Every structure is written in structure tokens, then in C-alpha cells.
Amino acid sequence: MTAAAPLGEFVARAQAGGALVVQPRMGFSDPATMRAGLAATKAAAATTVGTITLDSYTRVGDDEAVARALRERTPLNGYPIVALPRSTSQAVLDGLRDATFPVQVRHGSATPDRIFAALIELGLDATEGGPVSYCLPYSRTPLREAVASWRRSCRLLAATAGRGAAPHLESFGGCMLGQLCPPGLLVAITLLEALFFVQHGLRSISLSYAQQQNPEQDRQALAALRRLAGELLPGVEWHIVLYAYMGVYPRTQGGAMRLLGAAAELAVGAGAARLIVKTAAEAHRIPTIADNVEALELAAGRAARAARRDDRGPGDEPDDEVYLEARALVEAVAGLDPDVGRALLTAFGRGLLDVPFCLHPDNAGRTRSYVDDRGWLRWSDTGAMPIPAARPGRPTGRLTAAGLLAALSGVQRRYDEGAR
Amino acid sequence: MNITQSPAGPSILVTGTSSDSHTWNLVYLQLLLEEAGCRVTNLGACVPPVLVAAECLARDPDLVVVSSVNGHGGADGLRLIEVLRAQPDLAGTPVVIGGKLATDGLRNVGLVRRLRAAGYDAVFDNGDLARFRTLISRLSARVAS
Predict the structure, then answer these.
(1) Which residues of A fall within a CB distance of 8 Å from B104?
(2) What ipTM describes this predicted complex?
(3) Which Gene3D superfamilies does the protein's record reference (chain B) (predicted)?
(4) Is residue B15 part of a domain?
(5) A177 — contact with chain B (CB < 8 Å)?
(6) Kind and range of the H or E element at A337?
(7) What pLDDT digit, counting tens, does each position of A339-357 carry?
(8) Which residues of B touch A138 (CB under 8 A)?
């Protein structure tokens, strides 16, 4: 078997060569379909990384539900990597994962010990998540338990370094509940998770950010992320991964494709090295393999054209709002405790980090945000966070159910307008 | 965010299902119900059935609203209602479920029937909001009278 490409090195090489790496969110419970999905991703006319997304029962550790679904042949919403025999998963990967095609496991688990053990057993070395970003939005697991589990899991993954593996871990922190979270907090959380990963031995990291409603604010956020990563992660191999818009997706094929194209151009213009795509089927159903290939190829094509138009790359960034906000948050949290995990626990406990509209019991829930008329995400209440309250003249009314829907569906509305 | 006070209206427990990590649906329902004058306790995402049962026993809500959009809502919803209805004190508690309940995105008549048979008082597949609002206004009128 050809040696597999370490994900971090693969992406760095592609970026140096001017190619944006594109990656789907694909995951199927049937091993043959999962293999077909990986094969199609590899064969797509694009520089791709393969994805194995796990099902949500595996994510929450509900073995009984996985076993029942496998027994009764009920389809799951992802690949049950912990329950399936190792030989089955090896057959899924065999001959596909190689020097030209890294594979990342995506899972969403707040306590991923067994998932990390399962992927390491398969010789896989790239995954993602984080103690905050996979706990607060997606579970009721106490943050303390998530931090302890991620500490163990990071060490387990880091310990594989040098034994034919080059472990890579991506922080999902820049995406959590992103549809209404102003980017300063998202940038701060992904950086703090990266510092947590580095503290537990990882040396190849990616930082994430999800495309929001206003391209200029997104560019500011990505510039702030690049600059702060440079300042905070010396000696660490890192890149930025952009997620195509994660909220309510356009219903029309044209609208969905324009939104994805805008994400590809944003990635290239703002120096992100990897893009997680969404498909035109997103608003209607779970995407097929063909939907995914179409999205990968469209994004890669748009990125290549954008790179030819503008090969200067991102320049020097001013001290804009997102940078200052993210730096203030990171500094306040990092100053609480030399142990990043403990610092995160204290920060959430005191509301120094406080994610708007997050229902998790360990989130203070005192912050509020809104989308302004230009599509910028703004604070209406910063709670106890060490950043200035929003500017004067902001709307002060309570967010209504209709207002929430309008904010969450703004992108869908704008991109569907005039699209066929 | 999680608990709101509005002394007069019906008390409603909003919850996601055990495997569902989505929360915008839950935030939306909370705001909608608050605007209709309800008192809302929102349990959030990935709530195990035993916790829903414990919260129901502790709070004695006028209505339990289960919402799921991850495609496992049918299976998770069946497991949840079995646990709730197994508690004698919750045998009569009104419980409804809604959202995107199956992975194929189609209205699944058989699934709706099974959920009703298992003990849900109403099933709102594919987010039938008009019917849900009607239910809430009837409930508010009943609690207020």
C-alpha cells in the first residue's frame, strides 16, 4: 500500500501550488456506498480530501441504536466507524487513501475517545472538532467532561506521530452556531481550541471559519484569523479551512451554486487553503454522491478562475473590528490559566466567552446578536465578555420568532432571488 | 435563554431528541411559544429520554413539544414516547412531535401513524406550523379559562 499523505502537508503543498483543496461532508452507513463516495471524491476534477462523516448515534455513543440499525438495515445518517469491524473499514479505504488522497473523519462528538481510538486503529490520522465546538452546540455533555475527553483524545492522536502517521486536527470552533454569532467570538474560539490541541501535543492544525452573510465581514474575519494564528502558533503547521455557508441553504440550483461559488472566491481571496463544500441538494435532502462531486468540481473551478484573476493573495491587514475583538477574547481567556482547558472552563463559567442562542447548560446565555441590514453579524448584548458593547443606534427590540427566521433565511432569500 | 417567565400562560417543555444536535428549531419554537404567551423550558439538543421524563415529572408541563430535524426523529421519537408513557404520572401529559422526521424528506404516512399509536397526541411532519399554532392557541385559551 502506498504511504498515505498527511493532511496538513498535502494541503500546504496544494496551497503553495495555487490550488484550493475542496472537501465534501459525505457519510453513508453502507460500507460499499461509503467506499463509492470516497472513490468519486478522489476521481473528481479537483484537488480533494476525502471525508468519512459518522452517524449521529456513533457521535453520542449510543451503541445500542447503532447495533439495532445495522441489524435491521435501517440507514443511518453517517458511517458507524466504531461499530463496524475493522476489516470492513479497511476494505472501504483500501487503495483509495494514498499519497494523493488524505481522508478526514468528521464526527461532531463531545466525548470522542472511542472514535479517536477507532480511527487510529485504522491508520487514519486526520479528524476534527474540539472541546468547545463539539460540546456547546451539539450536546448536553458538561463542558468539563468534554475538555477531559478531548485532552485524552488529543494525546492519543498526537502519540501516533512518527509511526507512519502525521496526525492533523481541525478545530470546528469557527463554525459553531455561526449563523448568528459575530465573527470575533468564532475566531477566538477556533484559536483557543488550536492552542488546546498544541498544548496536548499536536503539531499540525487547521483553523475554521464558516461563510456568513456579508463577504466583507468574512474577509475581515479570515484576515484576523490568519494574523492571530501567525502570532499565536509559532512552530506549528497550520492552515485555514473555510466552510461554505452552513445555514438555511438556497432552494434553487442557481442560488445554491452562486453561494458555493462565492465561498470558493472568498477562500482564495482571503488565503484559506481548504473549503468544505455544500451541495445544491442541501435544502431538500441528504446529498447524493453525484451532488457532492458536482459541488466539488464547481468550487474548484471557481477557485482556479479566482486565483488566476488575483494572484497577489491577501495583503497586510489593518486592526479592524474582528481582529481587535478576537484578540481581546483570546488574551482574556489565555490569561486565566496556563492550562488552556481549565482557562476555557473558567471563561465559560464567568461568561467571558458566551455564545449567543446556545442552549447548552454551561453557556451563560447573556449575549445576543442580530444581522444588520447589510448582512453584518453584530452584538446587541455582549453580556460579560471583555469586548465593547455594540455601537449606538443598534436595534434594541427583542428578537422575535419571525425576526429569527428572517435572520436565518437571509442568505437563502438573497441567493434565490433572480435565480432559476 | 433556557427558562422564561410569563406567569399566566401554559407551561411548555421544548426538547430535541437524543441524537439530534440541531438547536435553531428549538430556539425558534421557544420564541414562537413565548410570543403566544407560553412559559417555556428549553432542554436543548441531544436530550436522553430519561432526562425528558425527569424534567416532565419535576415541572408537570401543560404540553411537551419534541422537535427533530436530523432524520432520526421517527426512531428517536418512538423511543422517547415509550419512556414517557411508561411513567404512570406522564400517561396523560400532552406530547407532540414535529420537524423533519425521516431521512428521505418525504411525508411518511406510516411513520406518522406509528408515532400516534405509540402515544403522541399530534405529529407535525415536515414542520406543519399552521396546525401547530392552532394547537397552541387552543391550549392557551384552555389554560386561561
Answers:
(1) 285
(2) 0.85
(3) Cobalamin-binding domain
(4) yes
(5) yes
(6) none
(7) 999 999 999 999 999 999 8
(8) 21, 45-46
